[in-house]
Amino acid sequence: MLTHLDAQGRANMVDVTEKEITHREAVALAKVRMLPATLRMIAEGEHPKGDVFAVARIAGIQAAKKTSDLIPLCHPLMLTSVKVELSSEGEDTVRIEARCKLSGQTGVEMEALTAASVAALTLYDMCKAVDRGMVIEQIQLLEKHGGKSGHFVAEGA
């Protein structure tokens, strides 16, 4: 059984030594709600800090690569692909989708969730001077496949 607890009930990293190497992929979502004027400023390339989406995308990619440094007991993974896409959703929301892939013994859900979260936080950081009321919301796993637990698709995804 896989657990983060050892025989004495202490937290430890799950031993994945005996697990099969398979192709694994996960997609996570985050949304940032803001004033329509803030989103227009970003979309029209008029934000004083430059290309907000490009910086948030890079931050998300970097975060995915550092997930094991941020989340206790998370395995360090050799990711083979990380993609972070940001797009407008309506007049006041940015949709962030992060997709992580690898061939390995453990999944990439935490990497995808970390990428989406950090991209959202970066977007907030870059825009907070013009819109302090932004809300980061709906951080969730949309889909994952590979490994023993099989395929997962979030309801409504």
From TrEMBL:
Pathway: Cofactor biosynthesis; molybdopterin biosynthesis. One of its GO terms (biological process) is Mo-molybdopterin cofactor biosynthetic process. One of its GO terms (molecular function) is cyclic pyranopterin monophosphate synthase activity. Residues 13-147 form the Molybdopterin cofactor biosynthesis C (MoaC) domain. Signal peptide: none annotated. Its EC number is 4.6.1.17. The active site is at D125. The keyword Lyase applies. This is Cyclic pyranopterin monophosphate synthase.
